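Following up on my earlier thread - several people asked me to post the actual chain instead of describing it. Fair enough. Here it is, all 298 residues.
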Amino acid sequence: MAKGSSDSENKNVDPLKNFLAGGVGGACLVVIGHPPDTIKVQLQTMPEPKKGEKPMYNGAIDCVKKTVRKEGFLSLYRGVGSMFVGVTPTSALSFFGNSIGKKMQTPSRSDGDYSLPQLFLAGSIAGITNTIVLTPVERVKCLLQAQETAKINKNVSATEYKGSFDCAKQLYQKGGIQSLYRGAAITIGRGIPTWGVYFCTYDGLKRSLKSKGYSEKLSAWRTILAAMPADVLKSRLQSAPSDKYPHGARDVFRELRKKEGLGSLYRGTTAILIRAFPANAACFLGYEIAMEALNKLY
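Reply from S.P.:
Thanks for posting it. Predicted structure:
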């Protein structure tokens, strides 16, 4: 590998730069991705209709229409406060973890670059490092986004919250740090393969495609099928009353399989698809611009 290329690669695996640039990418992701994420959670937590009744929402578009008509456009940004506070460091820790994963390995390709399995392993580290922040942030987000559903669904916590920080405060007062970190195990279980595929696909496509305009978008496709079941279980678990599922995700899975069928594990996929491309594009665009600026500084 040429010296110039090697220097550039070393700059791009610098953990501090990845932490800072990842934070910028995370902020960009929130602005673009939060509204469809709100719709996704509402679809995942809506009650199963009784026999002869229509479902609360007939898909993502119907959910958007009813939510905006009833609660206003800004309701799509419910819980965004915790996401801005949380996603920025979460994204920062994700890119940080990915860079640490790369530094732990010696590039095995003949051109001095990382192989795809190595990129997957490096990315999977992000699924561990970001859990510190991601679990309480998503716990708060799910509860706030599911508040409207809670009025008619006994499986969702009916506690009223005034906002992100009030929600976090009440959770801590009632159940301590354990309440904030409810769902941590399944968050890690979902995160390791998801972030491994996420960064492996992005880095692999970025390397192989001269036109970088598509790499941010294509990485989303491979994560969706793998991540959706765990995401549905996580949303149900984190938005439920604290005593609803004593054995965690296992209880949620058993209930879903029995009452709603395995197809319910992919509820909200349309909203995820709508969100995935622009949100991930915004995240990587923000990251790349910030990284370029940091590389010029040192």
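The chain has twelve helices and no strands. That should answer part of your original question.
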